[in-house]
């Protein structure tokens, strides 16, 4: 990754597929005075992703990528990342799995946020599975992306207590609040170690 020299900021692309609350939160953090990063680009595989509205509001370059053919989709993305001089990728609710080939090209420069205390509950429906297993705690994890799903090196985690009356919806809401604190913290950690 490009080293942080002087006041030069790290250029970040956020990948989304849906609501984009983490995307919005990262933008707002990037606008803080002492922020070491800039959100230059958002990539979505869905043209109707609600989160794309934030691109308009905050004047961030957006690209919608058709995933009919994964190879050409990724080739396309790599090209766009290059043009936009992107240093780091933050996945935030991106519902496509990146190929090994893509990950290799951005080795150590892709972060993801996952709504569980990894290595527990990889994949989907994490909250429902945690509740059904009578877990006392769940949480969220920011980790590096490697070739195995939700298995890369953990950067930071935050625990959230599961309450007796929790539904997966209620729990998701509380975990999401913590995600919004955790992702910028994890980014800061990654960037200060550069
Ligand atoms: C978050 O719960 C995140 O952990 C998961 O997908 C969800 C995205 O939410 N990977 P949002 O689109 O950022 O609101």
Explain how this protein is built.
The chain has 194 residues and is of the alpha/beta class. Strands 3-2-1-4-5-6-7 form a seven-stranded mixed β-sheet, with helices on both faces. Helix 1 runs parallel beside helix 6. The longest helix has 25 residues. It is globular and about 50 Å long. 5-O-phosphono-beta-D-ribofuranosylamine binds next to helix 1, strand 5 and helix 6.
Keywords:
single chain; 194 residues; alpha/beta; 7-stranded mixed sheet; 7 strands; globular
Low-confidence stretches: none
Helical residue percent band? 25-40%
Strand content: 15-25%
Assembly context of the chains? single chain
For the sheet with most strands, the description reads: 7 strands, mixed
Distance between the termini: 8 Å
Task: Summarize this entry quickly.
This protein is 35% helix and 23% strand.
Layout: helices, strands, pairs:
Blueprint: E1 10-16, H1 21-30, E2 37-44, H2 52-57, E3 61-64, H3 70-83, E4 88-91, H4 100-105, E5 110-114, H5 126-132, E6 137-144, E7 154-161, H6 168-192
Parallel strand pairs: 1-2, 1-4, 2-3, 4-5
Antiparallel strand pairs: 5-6, 6-7
The structure holds 5-O-phosphono-beta-D-ribofuranosylamine.
Residues 16, 18-23, 51, 92-93, 113-115, 140, 176, 179 line the site of 5-O-phosphono-beta-D-ribofuranosylamine (GRF).
């Amino acid at each position: 990754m490009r080293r942080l020299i002087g006041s030069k900021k790290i250029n970040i692309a956020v990948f989304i597929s849906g609501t984009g609350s983490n995307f919005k939160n990262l933008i707002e953090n990037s606008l803080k005075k002492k922020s070491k990063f800039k959100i230059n680009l958002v990539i979505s595989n869905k043209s109707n992703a609600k989160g794309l509205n934030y691109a308009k509001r905050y004047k961030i370059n957006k690209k919608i990528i058709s995933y009919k053919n994964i190879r050409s989709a990724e080739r396309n993305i790599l090209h766009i990342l290059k043009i936009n001089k992107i240093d780091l990728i933050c996945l935030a609710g991106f519902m496509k799995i990146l190929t090994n080939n893509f990950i290799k090209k951005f080795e150590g420069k892709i972060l993801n946020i996952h709504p569980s205390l990894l290595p527990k509950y990889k994949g989907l429906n994490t909250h429902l599975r945690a509740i059904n297993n009578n877990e006392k705690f769940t949480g969220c994890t920011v980790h590096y992306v490697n070739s195995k799903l939700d298995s890369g090196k953990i950067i930071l985690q935050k625990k959230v207590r599961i309450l007796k009356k929790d539904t997966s919806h209620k729990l998701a809401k509380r975990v999401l609040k913590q995600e919004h604190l955790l992702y910028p913290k994890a980014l800061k950690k990654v960037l200060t170690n550069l």
